[in-house]
Amino acid sequence: MNAFRHCLSKYLLIWLVLVCVLAFFWNKIFGSSGEILNPFLISNSLMQVLIAVTMLAIGSLLPVEEIKKVGRRWPTVLGGTCVQYISMPLLAFLVSKLFHLEGPYFLGVMMAGCVPGAMASNMLTMLARGNVSYSVCLTTSSTLFSPIVVPWTLYYFLKKDVPLDAMAISENLLITVVFPVIIGFTLARLFSWWRQGAAFIAEIIANIAIIWIIAATVARNQELFYQIQPMLFVALILLNLCGFAAGYLGGSLMRIDGRMCRALILEIGMQNAGLGTYLATTYFPDSKGAALCCAMYTFGCMFNGIILAQILRNFFSSDEETGDVEDKSHIR
């Protein structure tokens, strides 16, 4: 099981591509007559459960030390969270206008820009020899703030173009994101068997759930791939790269050290597009291109993030990498 967990985490992008390719060609391989049910289409009704299970797993993996560090580092954690929730929605809006994106694609890019950071940033921060503790604190903070910030940010940018029930999205984020994180963390503190089980399998569950959410979106919207204009790919890549740049600029303005700055760079660029995919599917079912944009952003940010993490790892000299030895134990 440890070998499988290591293989899944290390080659997450490859697994994501393989499963999505299978989802895309499922009907061509097995036929569309219904003799062999398409598991990706069947699971569409379970999106909320998959997101909740993912967040439960993440909450179960949060060490008590990270919660304490949030309190001790609250200025830098709050500052990093503000950089994310200010820069990414604004960048998404500017990129959309730059490329004249409208309708579902404008909605999808905005959704990718407004969601909180993803757990993948924690793993990439470790790969880049950044401050993993700070990365986990940022992910935790942005997740807890998401029911307040995400729906109202979307409402501000979309109110003239897309009808939006901000309160409904806020309630949904509380139920599917915040509460599972709190429940998972609490159970891990109360019961040693839950904590030990989470350390053994929670990361596997979270990664598989995210892969499946994206693959189900690909299966449901495969006909749209033939209609996508190349400029949409360019727009999403630009949004991702500008997010990394915003993290660097924010870290420089806050005057945090190099390892924390690397964590902030990756945290801001690695948006939780899996959550964005779910929200787009749930609240904008008629705008299929929106969910597809979020799925495409996941590919882009994972690909670019892995490359950037390797560059950051090799660029900075090893004599800087001191302290925070306990960080490596947070990402199993």
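Above is the first protein from milestone M3; the second protein from the same milestone is given next.
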Amino acid sequence: MNRVLLLLASVSLVLLTNIPADAKGGWRGGGGTAGGGAVHVRPYTKRDGTYVGPHRRTPRDSSKQNNWSTKGNVNPYTGKPGMKNP
């Protein structure tokens, strides 16, 4: 009986440590990347009072070709196609 419990506890620990941070329900803030190069953004309020909820975005760089909003690209989280010209 003790061996079975120890085995189950070990398997559970291994499985839990391999779950991505966003699947665990936690937002890791504005820095860092997760699978696919997505950056997690914490919720915030704009100067005009508009609330922006937690979301993912592509990392900042000088290229417009690799942004989800560019035509020809698709946001992997929402399935929306990009509409902006490159």
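Note on the second protein: Strands lie at 33-34, 38-41, 44-45, 51-52, 55-57.
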